[in-house]
Amino acid sequence: MATLTVPAAVPPVADDVEQLHKAFEGWGTNEKLIISILAHRDAAQRRAIRRAYADAYGKELLRALGDEIHGKFERAVILWTLDPAERDAVLANEEARKWHPGGRALVEIACTRTPAQLFAAKQAYHDRFKRSLEEDVAAHVTGDFRKLLVPLVSAYRYDGPEVNTSLAHSEAKTLNEKIDKKAYNDEEIIRILTTRSKAQLLATFNSYKDQFSHAINKDLKADPKDEFLATLRAIIRCFTCPDRYFEKVIRLSLGGMGTDEEDLTRVITTRAEVDLKLIKEAYQKRNSVPLERAVAKDTTRDYEDIMLALLGAE
Amino acid sequence: MATLTVPAAVPPVADDVEQLHKAFEGWGTNEKLIISILAHRDAAQRRAIRRAYADAYGKELLRALGDEIHGKFERAVILWTLDPAERDAVLANEEARKWHPGGRALVEIACTRTPAQLFAAKQAYHDRFKRSLEEDVAAHVTGDFRKLLVPLVSAYRYDGPEVNTSLAHSEAKTLNEKIDKKAYNDEEIIRILTTRSKAQLLATFNSYKDQFSHAINKDLKADPKDEFLATLRAIIRCFTCPDRYFEKVIRLSLGGMGTDEEDLTRVITTRAEVDLKLIKEAYQKRNSVPLERAVAKDTTRDYEDIMLALLGAE
Questions:
Q1: In a domain, A206, yes or no
Q2: Per-residue pLDDT tens for B64-106?
Q3: Does residue B119 lie within any of the structural domains?
Q4: How many CB atoms are located within 10 Å of the residue A83 CB?
Q5: Which of A6, A77, B5, B56 is the most exposed place for a label (fewest CB within 10 A)?
Q6: CATH number at residue B123
Q7: Which of residues 80-119 of B touch A (CB under 8 A)?
Q8: In this structure, is residue B5 part of a structural domain?
Q9: Which 186-215 residues of chain A touch chain B by CB within 8 A?
C-alpha cells in the first residue's frame, strides 16, 4: 500500500553517495539529482546512504543537505530521509514545543503507529533530545489537552487481536453517558481512548453504533468549532479509518487559502512507505480528482517534484 | 550488590532438571532439593532450566512446582523462578487487580527499575495477560491514586545523566508552592514526579532542600495517616534511596503483629539479584540486628529456608 518506487536495480550505496556529493558541489545545487536518489530509496537504503556518506565525507548527510537546500523543500527532504522512528521523534518534538490546539502530529504518531513503532519513536526521542516525549508534552501542553495528550503518547497499548465484547458494550455505554452530558473531558472518556488496544476500541465503537444508532464521531460533533472535540474525533478516526483521516488532512492542507505545506509534508513523508496508496484512492473517491494533480496544482518547483515523487507519480 | 550465591561449578542444566524432577516424585516433595537448586541459579540459568524441563517432561516447571508446593513457599519459589520482567508483570497484575491504597508493588516497579526494565515488564504483561499494564491500572485504581499511578507506570522516562539545573530550581519551587497549599494531588506535582528522569528528579529534590531547608519528604509528612502522601513519599524514596526504602518495607513486614509475607517475598525475590546486599547493610544499621536473624525469627520451615537462601545466608 506504499507509493514509494524503488528502481529494480538499485545502484551500489557508494554510487548513490558519490552522486549526492556531486549534487552539492560547485555553484548551485542539483535538486533533481537529490530527488532522483533519495525519493526512490526505502528506509533501510536511506539509512545505509547516510552512514556511507558520513564515512566518506566526514559530514552528516542531513547537515550537508541543510547547507544546500532551504525552506519547505529542505524540510520535506530531511523528514523523508530520516528513519521512521527518528522522523516521528522530530515531528513530535516540533509539535510539543510549539503546541497549539489544532496540532495533529502527536495524535497521528500515538494512534496510527503500532505500539512497537510508537515505542521506537520514544527511544529515538531520548537519543536525539536527551529528554522524554512524555515530559515535553506534559511541560508544554496545558489544560484538558494535557489531560488527553500525555496519556495518549505515554501508554504502551496491547497490540493483539483479543477483544472483550462485554467490556466493549459497557465502555460504549460509559462513553455515551459522558457524551450525552457533554462531559467531553471526563476522565473515563480519556481513560478508554488512551489505554485500550486498537482491537478493543474498534469493538467499543461498533458497540456504540449498535446500541445508540449513531457513530460515536457523529455525537462528538456538537460544536464543530471546539478543538478539543475535533481532537477526540481525530483520535477515533486514526484508529477506525486512517486512510480517510489522512485524506482529509491532505484535502484541508490543499484547499482554501494557500497550501499548508507543514501538514502536507508530514502526511506524505510519514505515509509514503506505509499506506499512501490507500490515501490516494480515498482522495480520488472523495474529490473526483487524482491526488497527484491536486498536489501539482498547489505546489511548485523542487517541493512539487519531491511531493510527486513520493506520491509515486509516473 | 546481589545476595544470590551461585556455586563455582554449576551442574549441567540436564542434571538440574533431572534433580528437580526427582524432588517432585513419589510420596512427599523434597523441598530442600528444590531450594538447593533454584535458589542458587541466576536468571539466565533458571530460564535455561525452565526451557529444558518443559522439553524433557512436557510440562511447565512452574506448573509442576505449583502441583507440589503450596502457600507462601509456593509463591516465593514461583516468583523467584520467573524472569525479572515476567515477575514484575505478575506482581503488577496482582496489585492492579486487588488494588488498595497501601500497595507498593506498582510504585516499586515504576520507580526502582530502569526505564528499559519497566518497558520489558510491560512487554511481558502483554504476553501473559493479553492486556496492557496501563489499561488494568486505569480500570481498577480510582480517584487521586489513578491520577498518580497511571502516568507513573506509563511514562518511558529519559534515562541519561543530563540535568537542567534551572529547571530543577523552578520545579522545586513549584513543588514547594503546591505542598505549602496542601495541594498534594495537584497536576503539577504529578506531572513532575511521573515524567522527569531520575537524574533530573534528584537534582530537583536537592534544589528543594537548598531553597527551603527541608527535605521534600519531611514536608510531605503533614498527615502521617494519609495514604496518598505516603505513596508520594514512597515514590521519592524509591528514586533517592532505594536501599533504605526497601529496608523499611522489610522492617515493617517483619515487625509488629504477624509477618507480612507478601511484602517480604516481593522485596527478597525482586532484589536478591540486584541490591539486597545494600538493603541488608541498611537493615543492620537501622535495627542493630542482621536481617537474616530477623527473618529466621519471624518465619518457619521451607519458607524460611528459601528466604535465607536468597538472602545469601551461609
A1: yes
A2: 999 999 999 999 999 999 999 999 999 999 999 999 999 999 9
A3: yes
A4: 16
A5: A6
A6: 1.10.220.10
A7: 119
A8: no
A9: 187, 191, 194-197
